[in-house]
């Protein structure tokens, strides 16, 4: 399955607020126990996220890694501002109702109020992607990665756009960056292997 088709299927099946940007690759199986290390109560939100990323990098079980990634997404969804959080909720509702102009307006307001909040840029990147505006989507993705270089969702989105526009070598580098952060993601592994084989074939 191509990265683009997987992204389209994921977008259709899940609320935008849950997919962040690009494929949220297979979730933990419902019949397996996914245990995530409990954070130290004294940790700040930033320290907790750093701890989760350390766990994600070490974890080799895909289901357990998916549980850790979900915790990271949960942390990312809180901007620390009640106003920005409300704007993000309004944007999600507008997106679900296909009111694109309103959604963009809410996201623009969230970005203006808290420009260092990666998820408002990430959500706008998703919306721009859905509207086939790859240039604006890529610009927003780059801003997300300036704020949070470990944002695996944004890296996945970057790889998808690069693949769609025929930049396979750069897409491969994006998947490599993704897997350095989230090594247990099987779909990302498959995408990288497919691209590696394709590029190797083109050189023979």
Automatic annotation (TrEMBL):
Q: Where along the sequence do coiled-coil regions lie?
A: none
Q: In the record, which residues are listed under signal peptide?
A: 1-29
Molecular functions (GO terms): molecular adaptor activity
Cite the Gene3D superfamilies for this sequence: Tetratricopeptide repeat domain
Record keywords: Signal included?
yes
Which protein, by its recorded name, is this? Answer: Uncharacterized protein
Q: Which PANTHER family match?
A: LD24721P
Provide the species name.
Rhizobium altiplani
What InterPro entries does this protein's entry cite?
SGT, TPR-like_helical_dom_sf, TPR_rpt
Q: Where are the TPR repeats?
A: 118-151
Cellular component (GO) terms are: membrane; TRC complex
Q: Which UniProt keywords apply?
A: Repeat, Signal, TPR repeat
An example Gene Ontology biological process: post-translational protein targeting to endoplasmic reticulum membrane
């Amino acid at each position: 399955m191509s990265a683009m088709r997987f992204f389209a299927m994921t977008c259709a099946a899940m609320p935008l607020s849950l997919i962040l940007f690009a494929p949220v690759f297979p979730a933990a199986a419902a019949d397996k126990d996914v245990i995530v290390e409990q954070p130290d109560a004294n940790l700040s939100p930033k320290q907790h996220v750093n701890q989760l990323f350390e766990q994600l990098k070490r974890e080799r079980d895909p289901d357990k890694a998916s549980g850790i990634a979900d915790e990271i997404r949960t942390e990312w969804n809180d901007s620390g501002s009640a106003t920005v959080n409300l704007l993000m909720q309004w944007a999600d509702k507008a997106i679900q109702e296909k009111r694109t102009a309103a959604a963009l307006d809410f996201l623009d307001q969230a970005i203006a109020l808290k420009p260092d909040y990666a998820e408002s840029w990430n959500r706008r990147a998703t919306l721009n992607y859905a509207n086939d505006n790859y240039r604006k989507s890529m610009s927003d993705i780059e801003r997300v990665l300036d704020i949070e270089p470990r944002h695996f969702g944004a890296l996945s989105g970057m790889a998808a756009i690069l693949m769609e526009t025929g930049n396979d070598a750069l897409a491969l580098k994006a998947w490599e960056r993704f897997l350095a952060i989230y090594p247990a993601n099987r779909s990302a592994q498959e995408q990288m292997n497919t691209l590696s084989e394709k590029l190797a074939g083109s050189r023979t």
